[in-house]
Specification:
The protein is an alpha/beta fold. It is built from 13 helices and 13 strands. Bound molecules: nicotinamide-adenine-dinucleotide.
Length: 397
């Protein structure tokens, strides 16, 4: 089949298997170029490993540190007529390349919130790896079925306390617009915390501990976001911010427990980047295109693999003490939040109009990054060629 991008709103409903494989290869090349990570992890569990920050984490562990990796994700295989999701193709490529390089890689495709998937993963760790010395929690999910109560919670992106109005962008039409979001109800806040807060991370950690699967010195890391003033109304002071507050509070509790294993539980605050999840958040894509233009002009822009490669080398495995801020967080958003960067972003936000949009915002870069998430627009890929869309993840076949 010849696969073309089909964009609907903020997602692309097709993915290119060869392009996704190339995207994975580019990330592997980046990590290999930086050389081996000294004292890096050897047995790694990545929860949310198929796209975005989780995919880059799995790649950095495997090709930077020679780690055996178990990845958990929620993706769709191809049914022969429709392509698989990008995360499925990414994971297929990752496993094939890992196996070719003599690296253990096994994947679980299902609901990470469920007890069933957790039990399957525990069994695989026990049988194949013995224990894990690193856990990366990188889920971004729209809903969660609670494993005990069966309650279905949905994550919503809303301000808390009062409605919020600001500039936003309709990416498809490349039109600026003003968007108003009503305040979340208490139930919406609760449900968003249920989905994106720390409870599930804690359940994973409980099960690993109960089954004696945490190795001495293990690191257990979840990803968060803080962001600047401009996005506070909808992000950090909004429903998702409440969930991140909960995730961060969970990290403090888990850190106490991980210290029993001479390990740590930590939050890494990452940079805003185009991923399948972030492109769905109102206002964030507009902030992102302004930010990206400034960071590119200053030559300090990073993508997910650059961020995670830096996380491993400069923070997690840099020495005996992991550098953190006053709140105990690893700050990979240091460049994004640099005052000289934010000053220009703020000024540009204020003077932004439809007329100067293309000049101030990195619209082309956004479009390119967005398509690349689905395997399109990668150098070296022949998009006119007939490709097999029924590529399988070897450990799931
Ligand atoms: P993403 O959408 O690229 O990846 C999400 C992953 O979660 C995928 O592997 C997906 O398959 C998996 N997933 C979703 N629901 C699942 C389920 N029920 N069961 C199993 N797997 C499931 O997201 P991302 O942007 O890389 O976000 C990962 C984390 O990083 C999130 O906590 C996010 O808040 C955080 N973060 C993101 C940004 C950003 O700008 N993208 C910035 C800072 C922090």
């Amino acid at each position: 089949m010849i696969v073309q991008p089909k964009i609907r709103g903020f997602i692309c409903t097709t993915a290119h298997p060869v392009g996704c494989a190339q995207h994975v290869q580019n990330q592997i090349d980046h990590v290999k170029k930086s050389g081996p990570i000294e004292n890096g992890p050897k047995k790694v569990l990545v929860i949310g490993s198929s796209t975005g920050y989780g995919l880059s984490s799995r790649i950095t562990a495997a090709w930077g540190s020679g780690a055996s990796t178990i990845g958990v994700f929620f993706e769709k295989a191809s049914d022969g007529r429709r392509t698989a999701t990008a995360g499925y193709y990414n994971s297929a490529a990752l496993e094939l390349k890992a196996h070719a390089d003599g690296l253990y890689a096994k994947s679980f495709n299902g609901d990470a919130f469920s007890t069933e998937i957790k039990e399957q993963v525990m069994k695989a760790i026990k049988e194949d790896l013995g224990q894990v010395d690193q856990v990366i929690y990188s889920l971004a999910a729209p809903r969660r079925v609670h494993p005990d109560t069966g309650k279905i919670s949905k994550s919503v992106l809303r301000p808390v306390g009062q409605e919020y109005t600001n500039k936003s962008i309709n990416m498809e039409a490349q039109q600026l617009e003003e968007v108003t979001l009503p305040p979340a109800t208490d139930e919406e806040i609760t449900q968003t915390v249920d989905v994106m807060g720390g409870e599930d991370w804690q359940i994973w950690t409980d099960m690993l501990e109960k089954n004696n699967l945490i190795a001495d010195g293990a690191l257990n890391v979840a990803y968060s976001y803080i962001g600047p003033e401009i996005t506070k109304g909808v992000y950090r002071n909004g429903t998702i911010g409440k969930a991140k507050d909960h995730l961060e509070a969970t990290a403090r509790q888990l850190d106490e427990r991980m210290r029993k294993f001479n390990g740590r539980a930590l939050i890494s605050v990452n940079k805003a980047l185009v991923t399948q999840s972030s492109s769905a958040i109102p206002f964030i894509p507009l902030y992102f295109v302004l930010l990206s233009q400034v960071m590119k002009d200053k030559n300090i822009d990073e993508d997910t693999i650059m961020q995670i490669d830096r996380l491993y080398r400069k923070f997690l495995y840099a020495g005996d003490v992991i550098p953190v801020d006053d709140n105990g967080f690893i700050r990979l958003d240091d460049l994004e939040l640099r005052p000289d960067v934010q000053e220009i972003v703020n000024a540009n936000w204020d003077r932004l109009t439809q007329e100067n949009l293309a000049e101030l915002a990195d619209l082309d870069g956004y479009h390119k990054d967005f398509l690349q998430l689905f395997g399109f627009g990668l150098k070296g890929v022949d998009y006119d060629a007939d490709v097999d869309i029924e590529v399988k993840v070897p450990s799931l076949a």
